[in-house]
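Appendix B. One record, verbatim.
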Amino acid sequence: MSLKKLGNLVNTFTIVLVFMLFLLLVVPLNNFLEGYDFAEMDSRYISGIIVRIFLSLGVIILIKKHGLSRFSSPKNKPYNLYVLVFPLIVVGAGFTANWEVYLGAEKLTVLLFFGKHLSVGLFEEVLFRGFVFPKCLIYFKNKRNALVKSSIMTGSLFGFVHLINLFREPNVMHLFGEPDFIFNIISQVFAVMVIGVFLAGILVRTGNIIFSIFMHFLINSSLGSGELRLAELSIPDSEGSLWLMSALIIILFAFIFIWGLMMLRESDTKRIYSLIEGDN
């Protein structure tokens, strides 16, 4: 690998970290909105939506500046849409299981909840799949399994930067001493990495970033329904139940990871590189 290519990759990662740090603007904006009698959850959602929309616009400008627009453009004609069928069934099952949660919450809060997760899908997809992923592909050009390697590198960065969630928690330094907190953070980073590989597969198989944004939105909205619960969920006391639940989650994410890798390996690498090189 040339030092120039490595330097470009380091610059890409630095840009990502800068954008993710700008997400911390959600905190002061949230505090500002709470001063105007917004409900706590509503102000969190509104501040998150506003910050992510502005950051998304910045990333889109960055993508055009770096000549990567054609790679994942919403204008690209989509294909291989059959790859969405099974994920939609799985996510649909998640929505069905949580339907009462959506119906039981305040209508405005539910609307803002979906708006927040749509803004998350938009921002994270244009940043990681629209910008970082093609940059990793350029780095691994002419290497074996370039798509797989690029998706894993992008997914790993995608998971790592979610550590920023630590700084959104109150009394975070105190929480560092809690084993459950550390385990939850590590689990989240691993899960996000796996989902990142899966979403990269969705992008390259459909050829259009709209579908990875939409799938990201659906996954987050389904898995994040606990935010809307008015009461804490009861946690089973049985150690056996906890192990069973953990095993099922591991199996699910293993399947998602394998599904993502299969989509990547079945993709047309030459066509993908032609889109990247066509803009440069």
